[in-house]
């Protein structure tokens, strides 16, 4: 079974490092970067299946990062993971192409399920017709 390659985009270095460890403990490959510009640079050289994207970051916001990910043509499923809940933000991000919107702290089992569902959706979309 293919496992998703995951990019974590969060300006809190400890949060990103801990999430990499949690995902690795569940046999998932993850890389953490500290912001939107770093995410775009990383995605330009390495394809990712799922992106876990923080909303509030210095420099490029989560919204701006998501826009740039889509403008660059990346197909990765983007799950917004934020500690700042806003229905307006959630609606805007979904309209921009985010797969889903989760609040921090998020239970590990819920996050794992969401990553799995996002990856399954990506595989369906990438499967050749016929």
Q: What descriptors fit this protein?
A:
Rossmann fold, 130 residues, alpha/beta, 5 strands, 5 helices
Short description:
This protein has 130 residues and is an alpha/beta fold. It has a domain at 28-98: Response regulator (Rossmann fold, 3-Layer(aba) Sandwich), CATH 3.40.50.2300. The chain has five helices and five strands; from the N terminus they run βαβαβαβαβα.
**Helix-strand makeup class:** alpha/beta
Low-confidence stretches: none
Strand arrangement across the biggest beta sheet: 2-1-3-4-5
SSE topology string: EHEHEHEHEH
The major beta sheet can be summarized as:
5 strands, parallel
Shape: globular
Q: Briefly, what CATH class of one domain?
A: Alpha Beta
What is the CA–CA distance across the termini? 21 Å
Tell me the β content.
15-25%
- Briefly note the CATH topology name of one domain: Rossmann fold
Q: Count of DSSP helices?
A: 5
Helical fraction equals 40-55%
Q: Superfamily at the CATH H level of one domain? A: Response regulator
User: From the alpha-carbon coordinates, what is the Rg to the nearest angstrom?
Assistant: 14 Å
CATH architecture descriptor text of one domain: 3-Layer(aba) Sandwich
Number of strands: 5
């Amino acid at each position: 079974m293919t496992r998703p390659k995951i990019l974590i985009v969060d300006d809190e270095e400890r949060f990103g490092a801990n999430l990499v460890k949690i995902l690795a403990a569940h046999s998932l490959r993850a890389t953490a970067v500290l912001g939107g510009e770093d995410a775009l640079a990383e995605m330009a050289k390495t394809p990712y299946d799922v992106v876990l994207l923080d909303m509030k970051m210095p420099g490029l916001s989560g919204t701006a990062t998501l826009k740039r990910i889509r403008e660059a043509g990346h197909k990765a499923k983007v799950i917004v993971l934020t500690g700042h809940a806003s229905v307006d933000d959630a609606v805007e991000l979904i309209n921009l192409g985010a797969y889903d919107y989760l609040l921090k702290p998020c239970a590990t089992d819920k996050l794992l399920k969401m990553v799995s569902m996002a990856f399954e959706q990506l595989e369906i979309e990438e499967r050749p017709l016929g």
